[in-house]
Write a structure and sequence with these properties.
Largest sheet: 10 strands, mixed
Number of helices: 11
Number of domains: 3
Strand order of the largest sheet: 1-2-4-3-5-6-7-8-9-10
Strand content: 35-45%
Distance between the termini: 72 Å
Structural class: alpha+beta
Radius of gyration: 26 Å
Helix content: 10-25%
Number of strands: 31
CATH superfamily of the largest domain: Alpha/Beta hydrolase fold, catalytic domain
CATH architecture of the largest domain: 3-Layer(aba) Sandwich
CATH topology of the largest domain: Rossmann fold
């Protein structure tokens, strides 16, 4: 008997990777799938539209746990995406509910006033309760989603509705001011998503597209979300309402967080691992803002296999062994040349026990007067840098969010303070959030600082590894900003965004400092010169999280599974890899100092009821001599061709600045068979609030 017990224990360890007993196998693919449409009633009489993807082939009295994806992204048009995505879960005994948020897609009611509003979350609690009490439900609900769906899964976990038992958040964050798209690093970002979302919000549900007075009142004529965000330029209550950054202790629901090294929302993973006391697990791989089973770049993994194990654990009451495994799966990035294209990101997987990782050593590097980077403190020196507002296009364009695959950094480095190490004597791995400690000044009341860590290959190519920005007026508080005192030296601590990288032997580390990262982030309005103070251990320096060499166990993730397609839904033109406008041209005028960056995107989809095509063109403009005169002009058009009519929604936005104000001009139009039906315009002057 003793020998048998030992063998069983070994088998359990082998299956779970680290556990102490045998585990339950995950749910198997034993069901078919059907789609049922349903209306979920709200207390005020409004109904939210739901697609229920349901298992078939079981017993008549089967009860299933329910997984909720809760979005404003028009579930009818998204069935081509949802059908293959959800099938993995449905075939393993889950109902998946796709629900349009109030006032979007096919749901009734007036459009919610902005992302993650109280209305959205209150409705969400009612949706979860309704799903738990349906006659085909076992009473347990999970939430999952990417981007918006991940954001509101985290937010609902803070609210702890009784029937919500677990969540999976992909490419999402709990910090709405510093991390979300509108004010990344506390600096204004103007994104093509904001404009396309405002136009999409104005449209009625498919396939009927009923354009009437209700549509005008509840959607078409409502204030654009972007206008709301641009009035909230500092941290505070508006962003606190749905941020979990100070509410970790309220999360009692198990959460699984998945991120990508080329996605802008990855910083939340170490914070959630470190601060949430409920069961928490994380995975970060070599992906952009994409599902890991359908990624860019490769290699992908079948994350839904662990998703089933996670939900089986908490929604079906199985012991799947997932809690006995290390909490953090990390894809360690190895060197690759700069972008913008990267089909395959080299590297390897490794388990980590959680965050922080105790064996990581902090290693200091000091900028030297001769622009080298050394482990020894520098002598006293002052380096000056003239502000060039138009630099930073090499970040990849206006959709970067410190993600995607950046271009060669040499053109930006040419207008930055740059410090290089000697060629490395051994491979050097980092994992974490590098920190820059700077002693700086500026001769103007407003200035931003940007720090970048890069890998310089022997042939001179420069691959960006990490970076971050800092709004100088937030040096004491992002809630109560203060103008700079021209010429006054002060300390800045800039934590770069989460990264992993192995610098190969013979390569150099590069530390670069600049005052602009345009068009990703809006330039400050004053021509100026900044300074960097060197000298001593307390002087400006870089701190890297260096991982000691040594082997660690690796997870064995399955390759992405084949997924079925939804008949009648077909992508005719997939557009850009990001799904948003990407840089198509850069025009510099050296005589005037004016620079124009143009970004474009197109796409087309075939639906059972017709064809939808869209096109966007965005022009970013600034001036190196007059950075106050920066602007973004965009056009977005969405055309739907139906058997009996053609509908066209158009939007035109001009967002520009001077030293004191931002100026917002936005026009929406809808036409039927080339005849204008409705037009609505907004014109507002918004004071610059330390931006």
């Amino acid at each position: 008997m003793r020998k048998l017990a030992i063998l069983l224990t070994i088998a359990g360890l082998s299956h779970a990777g680290i556990g102490t007993s045998a585990v339950d196998p995950p749910s198997q693919p034993e069901y078919g799938m059907k789609i049922r449409s349903s209306a979920i009633p709200m207390p005020d009489g409004v109904s939210l539209s739901a697609d229920l993807y349901m298992p078939t082939g079981g017993a008549a009295d089967d009860r299933f746990p329910v997984l909720l994806e809760y979005l404003p992204y028009r579930k009818h048009e998204s069935r081509g995406r949802n059908y293959p995505l959800y099938s993995y879960f449905v075939r393993r005994g889950y109902v998946v509910a796709s629900v349009d948020i109030r006032g979007t897609g096919n749901s009734e009611g007036q459009l919610i006033p902005h992302e993650y509003s109280d209305i959205e979350q209150q409705d969400g609690e009612i949706v979860i309760d309704w799903l738990s009490k349906a006659n085909w439900s076992n009473g347990n609900v999970g939430m999952f989603g990417i981007s918006w769906g991940g954001f509101n899964a985290i937010q609902m976990a803070v609210r702890n509705p009784p029937a919500l038992k677990a969540i999976i958040a992909v490419d999402a964050t709990e910090d709405l001011f510093q991390d979300d798209v509108h004010y990344m690093d506390g600096i204004m970002h103007v994104d093509s998503w904001e404009m396309s979302m405002d136009l999409d919000n104005s449209r009625p549900g498919a396939p009927d597209y009923v354009i009437d007075d209700d549509n005008f009142r509840d959607r078409f004529d409502t204030e654009p979300w972007m206008l709301t965000y641009k009035k909230q330029q500092t941290d505070g209550p508006f962003w606190d309402r749905a941020s979990a950054r100070d509410k970790y202790g309220q999360i009692r629901i198990p959460s699984f967080h998945i991120g990508g090294w080329y996605d802008g929302y990855r910083d939340s993973l170490p914070r959630m691992l470190e601060n949430v006391k409920a069961p928490v697990k994380a995975m970060i791989g070599p992906w952009s803002h994409a599902w890991p089973h359908d990624p860019y770049p490769n290699p992908g993994v079948e994350w839904r296999a662990d998703g089933v194990r996670w939900f089986d654990q908490f929604l079906k009451g199985k012991d799947t062994g997932i809690l006995a495994e290390p909490r953090f799966a990390v894809y360690v990035r190895e060197w690759h040349p700069p972008g913008p294209y990267l089909d395959y990101a080299p590297g390897y997987w490794r388990w980590e026990d959680g965050w922080p990782i105790k064996r990581i050593n902090e290693q200091r590097y000091y900028p030297q007067d001769n622009h080298t980077l050394s482990a020894r403190p520098a002598g006293d020196a002052v380096h000056r840098l003239r502000y060039v507002p138009s630099i930073g296009v090499e970040a990849g364009g206006p959709v970067m969010w410190w993600g995607d695959v950046a271009h060669d950094q040499r053109p930006t480095d040419a207008f930055s303070l740059v410090y290089d190490t000697d060629p490395l004597q051994r491979d050097t791995e980092i994992l974490g959030l590098p920190k820059a400690f700077l002693k700086v000044s500026a001769d103007a009341p407003r200035a931003n600082w940007f720090v970048r860590l890069s890998d310089v290959a022997p042939d001179g190519t420069v691959t960006q590894v990490a970076g971050a920005g800092f709004n100088g007026t937030h040096r004491n508080s992002a809630r109560a900003p203060e103008d700079l005192v021209p010429g006054e030296v002060f300390d800045l601590e800039i934590e770069m965004h989460f990264t992993s990288w192995v610098f190969p032997k013979g390569h150099r580390l590069r530390f670069a400092i600049a005052n602009s990262q345009w068009p990703m982030l809006w330039p400050t309005p004053y021509p100026m010169t900044s300074t960097l103070q060197l000298g001593g251990k307390a002087g400006s320096h870089l701190v890297l999280p260096v991982v000691p060499s040594g082997k660690r166990r690796a997870p064995d993730f399955p390759a992405p599974a084949e997924s079925p397609s939804m008949p009648g839904y077909k992508a005719l033109d997939v557009g850009t890899s990001s799904g948003y406008g990407e840089v198509s041209s850069v025009d510099r005028n050296p005589q005037t100092g004016e620079v124009i960056v143009t970004a474009t995107n197109t796409g087309a989809t075939q639906y059972p009821w017709g064809t939808e095509t869209y096109r966007e063109t965005i022009e970013h403009k600034t001036s190196d001599s007059h950075p106050e005169h920066t602007s973004m002009t965009g056009t977005h058009r969405m055309e739907v061709t139906l058997p009996d009519r053609t509908l066209l929604w158009q939007a035109e936005l001009t967002f520009r600045s001077d030293r004191e104000n931002f100026y917002y001009h936005y026009v929406r139009r809808v036409s039927e068979n080339d005849k204008l039906i409705r037009e609505k315009a907004w014109n507002e002057t918004i004071p610059r609030n330390y931006q």
